[in-house]
## 1
Amino acid sequence: MGLRIGIIHNKEEKSIRVLQRLRVLLADKDDLEIVEHDPELVITIGGDGTLLSAFHRYSHRLDEVRFLGVHTGHLGFYTDWRDYELPELVKSLSNEPGKSVSYPLLDVVLTTTDGEPKHFLALNESTIRKGSRTMVADVFIKEELFERFRGDGLAISTPTGSTAYNKSVGGAVVHPSINAMQLSEIASLNNRVFRTLGSPSIIGSHEWIDVRLKSNEQHLITIDQLDINRKGITSIKYKIADERIHFASYRHMHFWHRVKDAFIRED
Ligand code: NAP
Ligand code: MN
C-alpha cells in the first residue's frame, strides 16, 4: 500500500499535459498510488483557483488530507511547484517524511429567517455585498456593536487570502503564521453623518465578528468561489476555524519572496 494521491486539475491544455506526465511518473513508483476516493495527498495542477476548488472538495476531511499545488500559469500563493520540476516532485514524495505546514481558515455561520444556520469554511475570504444600493450592516466584534457600516461591502479574509481580494480593497498582506482574520471595508461611506473605522482591522483568534443585515433586502455573500445571492439573511458570524489546511511541505518557499515575486518583480 502506497501513499494515496488524488489529482485535481483545471481544463487548460498545459494542465492536461502536466497531468499526463505526472500519471506516467507516478505509475513507476510502487509506494505512490493514484486514487479516486479518500486521498491522503491532493495534488492540484493549475492555479490558486484550482487549489481553492480542491480545498472545497475535501473540506470535510481536512485532518486526513494534505495539499500540494503545481502551477501551470504564473507562480501562485498555494502552488509551489513548477511543471518542469515533476520528476523532482515525485522523488520527494517517495522519500516522504510526512511533514506538513498548516494555515488558518475562516469559519462562517450564516443565519437566515428560515431554516437552520449554515456553516462554511473559507480558505481565502468571505465578502458581503449588496446589488446597486448602499449596504447597511451592524458590525459586532464579540458582543459589542463596533460600527454601523454603510458602503459597498465588507471582506473578511484569512492570512493566506490576504493577498487575494483583500489586497485589492486596500487590506494588509498578513504572514500566514499569524492566526488572525482581517476585516476590510469596500468603499465605505464616511462623512459627518456616517462613520466607520475607515481602515482594515486584524481580529484575534479568540474573537469573532458578527455582521447583522436587514433581512428584507437582498445580499450577495461570497465564500471563496461560492456565491449566495438571497434575501432573508439576518447575520453572518466569522471566526478563525478550529480546522486548518495542511500543505505537504516537501519544499519551503519564503512567504515574502512569493509576495515580491507576485506583486513587485520577478528576478
Ligand atoms: P479568478 O477570478 O480566476 O481569480 C482571481 C485571481 O486571484 C487569480 O489571478 C487567482 O490566481 C488569484 N488568487 C486566488 N487566490 C489567491 C491568493 N490567495 N493570493 C493571491 N492571489 C490569489 O478566481 P479563482 O481563481 O477561482 O479565485 C477566487 C479568488 O479570486 C477569490 O477568493 C478572490 O480572493 C479572488 N478575486 C479577487 C478579485 C479582485 O482582486 N478584485 C475579484 C474576484 C475574485 P490564479 O490565476 O492562480 O487562479
Ligand atoms: Mn483562477
Note: DSSP finds five helices and 16 strands in the chain.
## 2
Amino acid sequence: MRAFVQTCDTIAATAKKLEKIQLASELLRSLPLKEAARAAIFLTGRAFPRNDERVLGVGGMQLYRLVGELAGKEPGHLRDVYRQHGDLGTVAEQLLGAADRDGDVSLSEVADAFRKLPSLRSPAQKHALLSSLFARASASDVKYIIKVITGDLRIGLKENLVEEAIAKCFARAIADVRRANMLTGDIGETLRLAARDALASAAVTLFHPLHFMLAASIETPAELFDESPGAFLVEEKYDGIRAQAHKSAGQVKFFSRTLDEITEFPELTEPVGCLPGTFILDGEILAWQDTHPLPFTELQKRLGRKQDQMNLWEQHGVPVKFVCFDLLYRDGETLLDIPLHERRARLDNLLAGSRDSHMQVAPSTLCHSSDRMTELFRASLAAGHEGIVAKAPDSPYTPGRRGGYWFKLKEPFATLDVVVTAVEYGHGKRHGVLSDYTFAVRHENQLLNIGKAYSGLNDKEIAQLTDYFLRHTTQEEGFRRVVEPTVVIEVAFNNIQKSNRHSSGYALRFPRIERLRPDKSVAEIDTLDRVAQLYAKQFAHAPLALES
Ligand code: AMP
C-alpha cells in the first residue's frame, strides 16, 4: 500500500488535472500488473469494479467504533476530531498516527479482505477481520482503506481521470480505454487489456448495464437541418423511464439510467423473456392506457413499491408498456458500431413475432425537411408525448454520450403573449429588415420588457412588420427604434430566469416567436404576475425516484 498511499497524498495535494493523471499513471507503471489492476479500482474510490454488485456491508458507525477502539480513544474525543475533518479516514490517520504505529499491508491483502467481507454475515465477524487488517497496517494505509470502504477517496480523482492515467501509462488511445471500460465495467480489466494491447477485444457482458446514449437539445427543427443537412429518423419522445432490458436463457433484468436494476414492473419480464435468443434492448417504460400514453406522474406512482405490493399493482395499478427503440447486442454480437438504421431493422426482426401488448417497437419516420419534422413534432404532442427525438440514421450507439447523433425537441415550457416595444435591424440576410423584437408583459398600467426574440416569423411576416414599425416608430435610437406597443406576439421559451437585463426583473431563455396574435390587444397580454407564477412553477417538481 505504501506507494499507493504516497501517490494518493500527492494527488490530493495538487489541483492540476494533468499532474493528477501523471502521478496516477506513474503509480500504475511502477506496480506489477496484478497490483496495478487492483490499484486502478481503488483509485476510483471503489472496493470492487463498477460491474460488480457485491457490497462490503460495513457501516460508517461500525468503522467509527473500530477506529476508536484501535486508537484507545473515547467516543467524545473521536467526535471532536471528526468535526474537525469531516472524514473518517483522516480521523483514523490522525489518531493512529499519534499512536506511533508502524505497519504496511499490501494491496493484495486489502483486496483479499474486501473479497471476504461480503460473505461474512455478522457485524462481529466483519469487525474482527477489519480489526486484524488495520492492526497490520500503517495509519495512512488505514486512512485509504477506510476511504475506499466509504466509497470516496476525496483526492479529486474520478474514474475518467483513472482512464486517462491508464491510457498514458500504456500509451493507448484514450477513446479505446474509455470504450473498453464502458463495455467491461471493470477498470482493472481495462488496465489488463491496455497492457496486452487488447482493448479492442472488450465486449458487452449481459446483465452488466451499459451507459445510455443521450440526446442533445435543439430549439427548432430548422437548427438541425441548417447544421447537418440530410435525413433523420424521427421518433416520439416518451415521457417515461429509460430502461435497458437484458435477456439470456429465460432470465430478464431491466436497468435504469442510473444503472440500477428496475424491479417495479414484473409484467414486463415475460414479454421480454419470450423473445428468442440473448439480447440487450434500449427503450422507455411508459404508463399506457388502451391507445394512449399517460403522464409520467402516473408511472411515478409505481416506483419504489415494495416487492409484496407489486403483484397487486400489476393487477390494479397503472398499466405499463416497454417501447423499444434500439438493439445493442444480440446472440454474441455487439451491435454498438453498426448504423442505427441497421440496428432498427434487427430490432424489428427480433420483435416481429411478439404480439404482447406490453411491448412494441417505437415507430420511426425518415424525415428530410424541417417542415416535415415540425409536423411530426406536432403530431407527437397531439398523441400525448413530450416531443420528438431525431436520430442520425448512420450513427453508432455511443454509450454515455450526449450530442452528435441524437437530438431532442421538447414541448415548450409555456408560451407568453407579449407586446413588441422596440425593434432592431437583423443580421446577415435580414440586415435590411426590422427582425429583432424586444417585447414586454403588463404590470398594472406599465409595460415591462422581458426579452428579445429574432426567430420564428417567416420573411413575408417580417417584411410586413418592418413596413408597419417604420410607420409607428415613436423614437429612433440609432440602430434601435422604440415603437408603439400594438403588435402582440406569442413567444415560446425554455425557462425563465431572474435577471436585471430587462425592466421586468426576469429574462426568458431561448425565446422564439410562435406566432403573431393579431386577435389580441395590448390589454390582453400576459402580466408580470403570470411570469412570476411560471417562474415559481419551474421549481415545483418534486425530486423523482428515477430520472426519465
Ligand atoms: P431528457 O430527459 O429531456 O434529457 O431527454 C432524454 C431522455 O429522453 C432519454 O433519457 C430517454 O429517457 C427519453 N426518451 C424518450 N423517448 C426517446 C426516444 N425515442 N429515443 C431516445 N430517448 C428517448
Note: Residues 216-410 form a domain with the D-amino Acid Aminotransferase; Chain A, domain 1 fold (CATH 3.30.470.30).
